[in-house]
Known about the structure:
Radius of gyration: 21 Å
Largest sheet: 8 strands, mixed
Number of strands: 18
Distance between the termini: 23 Å
Strand order of the largest sheet: 5-4-13-14-15-12-17-16
CATH topology: FAD/NAD(P)-binding domain
CATH architecture: 3-Layer(bba) Sandwich
CATH class: Alpha Beta
Strand content: 25-35%
Number of domains: 1
Number of helices: 12
Shape: globular
Order of helices and strands: EHEEHHEEHEHEEEEEHEEEEEHHEEHHHH
Low-confidence stretches: none
CATH superfamily: FAD/NAD(P)-binding domain
Amino acid sequence: MTRVAIIGGGIGGLTAANALSRAGIEAAVYEAAAELKEIGAGVALHPNAMKVLRAIGVEDNVRTVAGRSHWQFIRNWRTGRVIAKTSRQQQAASFGTEGATVHRADLLDVLAGALPAEVVTLGKRCTVVRPDGDIAVARFADGSEIEADIIVGADGIHSTVRASLFGPDAPRFTGKICYRSVVPTGAVRGPWPYTEGAQWLGPHGTIVLYPLRGEDLINVVCHYDDDSYRHESWIAECSREEVLERYAGWHESLLRLFAAADTWYKWALYDRDPIPQWTQGRVTVLGDAAHPMLPYLGQGACQAIEDGAVMATALSAEASDPLTGLARYERTRRPRASRVVLTARERGLSNHLPSPWAAWRRDLSIAWRRHVNRRDPEGRGGAWLADYDASSPDVLAD
């Protein structure tokens, strides 16, 4: 039996472990942290991700802990005018299932809970990985080493595995920053806040809201053009006052929501070009380690989930030859993931249009797309994302 060691116990790594196990492939996960956890933040799971979660048997458990919403809106930053709205039923009719929004910690709990306890080893920080002939080797900070038929780097945007194979990356600052918070719905003063999923599009900025844990929490992600702050860490805090000042003039419901948040995180958005190779020998990468992307499509976690499913299918289809399986995995996934990276980059520009005239033309284009193409309910040309089923053997490249 092929033995696969996965470096990183995040969403992509745990999804891969579940998919590999269901395909009859031995998987082991090595996570640097002492416990499986995420910062307080949500994640949007679009239909393409939910198809994979269905295939690995965890969809129902994810929906149990998901936010409760029936509509997805695109709104004007100042007036709240609805530019477009899509129902969950429309999503399901168009793409075979509807999306969900969940707290990252809840999603990790579901994914880890579907695995035998011995699959995940905590407190194992990888320092280097090397292909070594008929095996691959990973060394950890405690001096220990493991061998496997295949090693997968699922260790995030600052991947040790990717750096071991291809050297350090070359991130490019985008001139954009991001603020994030999770707000208890009951803490918001005044009228009941919008708890449906929504994107608010404005000059130089985008705000994304969606519910978590039913309607108990609202996940808030705010983007803005700002070339003065360049710190990429997800855990750097900033003041509530900074956020309120930044979005002064935006819709009053947003400002009431922001005022109710106790903790805000702030980080700079860096972009990376798609890398031309994911695999070297018996070592490969997935998720942010393979294709870090800007967040404007909400596809970061979704693409990592797709990676795990396709990897399991490819290795299962080439059970006697893991190297051929890895080659099919990369041939299948790299073109699609690279397209998502570049499309997310373009969407960031479209969302932040400073010109009212350009924004009006964008909004008109959204309305026209929705009118002429019923399979594009959002009106932004994203059906190719949601339509994909990474759990199907038919997606494998020859």
